[in-house]
Amino acid sequence: GQSLEQPSEVTAVEGAIVQINCTYQTSGFYGLSWYQQHDGGAPTFLSYNALDGLEETGRFSSFLSRSDSYGYLLLQELQMKDSASYFCAPDYNTDKLIFGTGTRLQVFP
Amino acid sequence: DVKVTQSSRYLVKRTGEKVFLECVQDMDHENMFWYRQDPGLGLRLIYFSYDVKMKEKGDIPEGYSVSREKKERFSLILESASTNQTSMYLCASSSGSPGTLSYEQYFGPGTRLTVT
Q1: How many angstroms separate the CA atoms of B104 and B83, rounded?
Q2: Is A47 a residue whose pLDDT tops 60?
Q3: Chain-chain contact of B99 with A87 (C-beta, under 8 angstroms)
């Protein structure tokens, strides 16, 4: 299968900025999605990058560099409710998304 | 709003039983997926389908089968449940194709299956 790496855990305080990095396998790559999952909940879509650069949606931004096989999710003005797991999920010409093990973000007051 | 529903939130079955997990979506999506989620292992794709009566194996299809007789419904079948199939099962649906924003997947609430 395709290799996918993201940190297992990140901690931050309310109001801070946090960046969750993701590196993926290049072969057959189409684009990179990010999903959020709260404990006990279902994953929900946050963003998708097919082209290089930064996509901004409110407090969340996602970045992609195809040449580096790298992307990140940037969360600004952190709130307690942002405590969740975040998954990067590249899609490939194999017609499916690949989800990794996710990054657990804990936001402290 | 897209809605993906799953037949049960919690299910307890005995080893060797045949188990059916049902998933229904109401947005006329072409694509449907079954994942299982286990601590430390993330989401792993079991099977997916791009059209009625079509199915493709995911990364961990062993011990499972699927059925898609109607566009809105995708069923996961455990032919003979085993304790190592105790897990959270998540169904998802999407339209479009990989490489497009419309490939965004919408997830159901999940079924926590315990096999004893």
Answers
A1: 32
A2: yes
A3: no
